[in-house]
From TrEMBL:
This is Exodeoxyribonuclease III. Gene3D superfamilies: Endonuclease/exonuclease/phosphatase (3.60.10.10). It comes from the Bacteria. Its cofactor is Mg(2+). PANTHER family: EXODEOXYRIBONUCLEASE III. It comes from Pseudonocardia xinjiangensis. Residues 6-254 form the Endonuclease/exonuclease/phosphatase domain. PROSITE patterns: AP_NUCLEASE_F1_4. Belongs to the DNA repair enzymes AP/ExoA family. One of its GO terms (molecular function) is double-stranded DNA 3'-5' DNA exonuclease activity. Pfam families: Exo_endo_phos (PF03372). Its EC number is 3.1.11.2. CDD domains: Nape_like_AP-endo (cd10281). It is an enzyme of class 3 (hydrolase).
Length: 263
């Protein structure tokens, strides 16, 4: 594994029709993590599989929601779905694959809404996921293996990760307890790979609302993250958000986040 990309496709069938297939055909990535596919396995456009091995976790409880995937150039050694929590393991939120020396995961963390059951669901996931990540890191260390969790984390960790942070301090994705949750992960040794490669700057943003002129004004959020164990993060040499040239050329409201890891 050398290059890893991650993108929330906002519906894999729609994205395939708008440009995802062209992007996949041209990418140099060895691994691609997809989120919010919104499809069952038999609904995945067959062309997506050209040149790729697919590991897939749809949402079993509701068609047309959630869904995560990992595409690899070589077949994975193992595939695991879920975080060991009955509430979430069939919801298309988390999938990981083992490759030589590294486990790569695709995450679609719940997107909450303050004051609603959706935020309560998100907070329950955060509590369970923190425990899972601690156990996963410990297990990986015992196996002399690195871990990389890519995906739509639906949290902007700091003020530098959202253009209009002052207007969003009471909104899900930028709530104090959510940012504290991510800070605690980083304090435990997990590394925000993209931020480590882009210190002291705003962004680079990876999501822009379709409303208004958010994309044209780069009024975005950095919520799509590569979060890795220290050994893997130390190998990262470059990180880029593959922002579309124009609003009309977008095939998702997110852009691929691509990191090159040395060997």
């Amino acid at each position: 594994m050398r290059t890893v990309s991650s993108v929330n496709v906002n519906g894999v069938r729609a994205a395939a029709a708008k440009g995802l297939l062209r992007w996949l055909a041209g990418t140099s990535a060895d691994v691609v993590c997809l989120q919010e596919t919104r499809a069952q396995l038999d609904e995945i456009p067959p062309a997506i599989l050209d040149g790729w091995h697919l590991a897939y976790a749809p949402c079993d409880s509701a068609r047309g929601r959630n869904g995560v995937a990992v595409l690899t150039r070589e077949p994975p050694d193992a595939v695991r779905v879920g975080i060991g929590a009955a509430e979430f393991d069939g919801s298309g939120r988390y999938l990981e694959v083992d490759l030589p020396g590294v486990t790569v995961a695709s995450l679609y963390l719940p997107n909450g809404t303050v004051g609603t059951p959706r935020q309560e669901e998100k907070d329950r996931f955060l509590a369970l996921f923190a425990t899972y990540l601690a156990e996963r890191r410990e297990k990986a260390a015992a196996e002399d293996r690195e871990v990389l969790v890519c995906g739509d984390w639906n949290i902007a960790p700091t003020e530098a990760d959202i253009r209009n942070w002052r207007g969003n301090v009471k909104n899900s994705g930028f709530l104090p307890h959510e940012r504290e949750w991510m800070a605690a992960l980083f304090a435990c040794g997990w590394v925000d790979v993209v931020r480590a490669l882009h210190p002291g700057v705003d962004g680079p943003y990876s999501w822009w609302s379709y409303r208004g002129r958010a994309f044209d004004n780069d009024a975005g959020w950095r919520i799509d993250h590569h979060v890795g164990t220290p050994g893997l993060a130390a190998l990262a040499v470059s990180a880029v958000v593959e922002r579309a040239p124009s609003h009309g050329e977008r095939w998702s409201d997110h852009a691929p986040v691509t990191v090159v890891y040395g060997s």
